[in-house]
Amino acid sequence: MAAEPAVLAPDAPLPASTALLTATLTRRDADGSGQPARAVPPLQRLYPVVDDRGRLRGAVPRQSLAAPGAARTVADVLIPEPVVVHADDTLREIASRFARHGITAAPVVERTDPTRLVGLVTVDHLLDGRLRDLAEEHDRERPLGLRSWRAGRRREGYATLRT
User: Fold this and answer.
1) Where are the domains of the chain?
2) CA–CA distance, 152 with 70 (Å, rounded to integer)
3) Which of 55, 68, 56, 52 is nearest to 16 (CA)?
4) Which residues, 6 or more positions from 9, have their beta carbon under 8 angstroms from its beta carbon?
5) Which residue has the higher pLDDT, 67 or 7?
6) Is 44 exposed, middle or buried (0-12, 13-18, 19+ CB in 10 A)?
């Protein structure tokens, strides 16, 4: 999850600035070290829209900011009720919600106050989390040694390789 995504105000003018369109999201290494990822961070694809009190009012996809058409302000291209997730949702719940709605990013809000923005989560973050899970599974696996394999095969009456 990106804890500090770039956010917009509803009355911000369009088209958006180049700096805003090139905003990136922080990702962490899959090993769980907490160090910034070595790869180039992804561009932010969804921008939460917050009012002057910091309350979530909606979201705007990056492509709507880059090519706004006749829209003059962010409010003109705003998705007023975006799909949101909660910080305590599991990766599986978030991935299912993404698949069900056909989205790749969502604002993260507090469960007790759905207008309080906590961050932004993307498919990239989900994949980073899954890689971390896979690394932990790999570390937990106990390799089967060749000596153990040969001993087990002899007991079962199978032929063994001669060395």
Assistant:
1) 18-155
2) 74
3) 68
4) 49, 50, 51, 52, 74
5) 7
6) buried
pTM, two decimals, is 0.72
Residues 6+ apart with CB under 8 A from 105: 45, 46, 120, 121, 122, 123
| Rounded (5°) CA angle 151-156-161 | 55
pLDDT of residue 1: 83
Determine the average pLDDT of the residues in 9-16: 90
Q: SS3 for 65?
A: helix
Closest CA to 98 of 64, 90, 36: 90
Whole-angstrom distance, CA of residue 31 vs CA of residue 143:
20
Which of the four CATH numbers 3.10.580.10, 3.30.470.10, 1.20.1250.20, 3.40.190.290 does domain 18-155 have? 3.10.580.10
Question: 48 with 7: CB under 8 angstroms?
Answer: yes
Q: Which residue has the tokens 């900011």?
A: 65
With the CA atoms of 82, 86, 90 and 96 taken in that order, what torsion angle do they form, in degrees rounded to the nearest 10?
Answer: -10
Residue 21: partners with Cβ closer than 8 Å, 6 or more residues away: 43, 62, 65, 66
> What's the whole-number mean pLDDT along residues 47-63?
94
